[in-house]
Amino acid sequence: MRLHSPAVRALPPGPAPVEYAVAVERYLAGTSLGPASRRIYRISLTSWTWPLVGRRPPQGARRRGAMPPVVPLALLDRAGTGARIAAAIADRAATADVRTVNRELSALRSAVGWWQDQEWISSDPTAGIRHVAGAAAPLPTLTGDQVTQLFGLTASLREQAFWRVLYDTAGSADDILRLDACHLDPPGRRARIGSPGAPSTWIRWGADTSQLLGWLLACRRSGPVFLTERRAPAGAAAADICPLTGRARMSYRRAAEIFTAVTRPLDPAGQGWTLHQLRRARLEPGPS
């Protein structure tokens, strides 16, 4: 997902905030972003608190809910901050999706420009830093043995069902996460995907996957198939909320984060695998 600079409105004049986190909230309050986009910007901007003080952000499951360090906003005006940001981008680009790295840089650049307009900071530490070009080096396709190891892991029913659907169908993870219970045809072991008004496409899966989905849905006939463990936040779209439990549709970001964290012990490189590698294992089977 690519971020574009949001429209911002003027806020009543006031003293410059001391903390970076407060400046982030003031910036978000001045944008025209909707609740979902504001949440993405907040996550991206918060992720910079660690690199700004020369630390690496927590990885995998440890990142969720981690308490970010307190960062003075004035740090952005100090010599060397731009070099820290550039080094953090290079570090992230070695392991993260290119779109994620560029999204986080775009969010910081937009916020910095707004803070300069408010005269809270005088310099732009992102100046001269380019977006990561092209695609990251392709990761190896998972082997047959690795796929077997994956499905032998102790994981939640939601994760096992999602991974199985992704592998069986070789479909887009985004499309699969957008599935609603009403899109499924359990007897036919298939589901209908496609944008509203566009021709439908059917994806199909095997008997084991069908059984997992039956257990996961537990007779639910509407709402997102793959749900978060928590109730939906205020402002979430009605289409992304389960009408029975009030829980929200699981995001791609969260699904990818879980997959990488859970598979880290299986990865010889110790980085964890990606959902794209699992999909490719079906499209381009590796050796067993």
Structure, described:
There is one protein chain. The protein is built from 11 helices and 5 strands. The protein is mainly α. It has 2 domains: 20-117, no CATH class; 144-283, Orthogonal Bundle (hpI Integrase, Chain A). A 3-stranded antiparallel β-sheet has the order 1-2-3, covered by helices on one side. The chain starts with 19 loop residues before the first helix and ends in a 5-residue tail after the last helix. The model has no long low-confidence stretch (mean pLDDT 83).
**Relevant CATH superfamily of the largest domain:** Intergrase catalytic core
**What is the oligomeric state here?**
single chain
Order of neighbouring strands in the sheet with most strands = 1-2-3
Structural class: mainly alpha
Low-confidence regions: none
Calculate Rg over CA atoms: 21 Å
Count of beta strands: 5
β-sheet strand percentage: 5-15%
- As a percent range, the share of helical residues equals 40-55%
